[in-house]
Amino acid sequence: MPVIENTLAVLALWGIVGYFIGSVPFGMVIARVMGLGNLRDIGSGNIGATNVLRTGNKGAAALTLLFDGGKGAVAVLLARAMAGEDAAQLAGLMAFLGHCFPIWLRFKGGKGVATFLGVLLALAWPVGLATCATWLATAVIGRISSQAALFAAASSTFWLLLLGHGTALVMGAILTLLVFARHMENIRRIKAGTEPKIGQK
Questions:
Q1: Which three-class secondary structure string do you get for 112-175?
Q2: How confident is the model at residue 199, as a pLDDT?
Q3: How far apart, in whole angstroms, are the C-alpha atoms of residue 77 and residue 144?
Q4: What pTM was estimated for this model as a whole?
Q5: Secondary structure (DSSP) of 55-124
Q6: What's the confidence (pLDDT) of residue 51?
Q7: What is the pLDDT of residues 139-161, one digit of tens each?
Q8: How many Å apart are CA 15 and CA 34, to the nearest integer?
Q9: Residues ≥6 apart with Cβ < 8 Å to 118
Q10: Is residue 200 over pLDDT 80?
């Protein structure tokens, strides 16, 4: 845990800011702007980059990945610059929750993997890079995005400890548990051998 430097009111403010930054559904916006249709009617119906990729538009998927990760990073960096590390961690956590449960979409959002990675990159870039590398390696080998996300999330706790960022361990563990909770259906499909491969329409 970081040292608590701010008042409850300040932390609450940054929690709200983080939530609203994270709640912007970039996948939906990009799909609409690029004429790809309503993501709710495509593939899994998810608003993240993996489902955008199922439209066949790699550029749109890359932009979604970038913006979904970016909003997690922006929430952390803004809070850190203006209020400190305790606010940064809370803002990052709330940005993740904003992506998963956006008020604009009746609290039905995405799985939060890109936002999770963006939060880690901003909080502790060596940990973020190591977690991203874990995702990439698992995705290349298994070709299953959700499986790569689960491996990456599970590895983040190890990377936090190994790379000396223990003050973020509690927040990292919470994010990991949330990633797993958001992927329960994927876990069942992975076990059944029915989970779609990356790029599969």
A1: CHHHHHHHHHHHCHHHHHHHHHHHHHHHHHHCCHHHHHHHHHHHHHHHHHHCCCHHHHHHHHHH
A2: 59
A3: 31
A4: 0.94
A5: TT-HHHHHHHHHHHHHHHHHHHHHHHHHH-HHHHHHHHHHHHHHHHS-GGGTT-----HHHHHHHHHHH-
A6: 87
A7: 999 999 899 999 999 999 999 99
A8: 32
A9: 68, 69, 70, 71, 72, 73, 76, 128
A10: no
The whole-number pLDDT of residue 19 equals: 98
Residue 193's identity, in one-letter code, is G
Place of tokens 């309503």: 38
Going by C-alpha positions, the residue among 94, 98, 92, 158 that lies closest to residue 131 is: 158
The dihedral region occupied by 109, where left means phi > 0, alpha psi between -120 and 50, and beta the remainder, is beta
Q: What is the residue whose two structure tokens read 């609203």?
A: 20
Helices 85-100 and 169-182, axial angle in degrees (round to 10):
0
**Structure tokens belonging to residue 42:** 């495509």
Contacts of 10 (CB under 8 A, 6+ apart): 83, 87
Place of tokens 């983040």: 156
Q: Read off φ and ψ for residue 53, nearest 5 degrees.
A: -60, -30
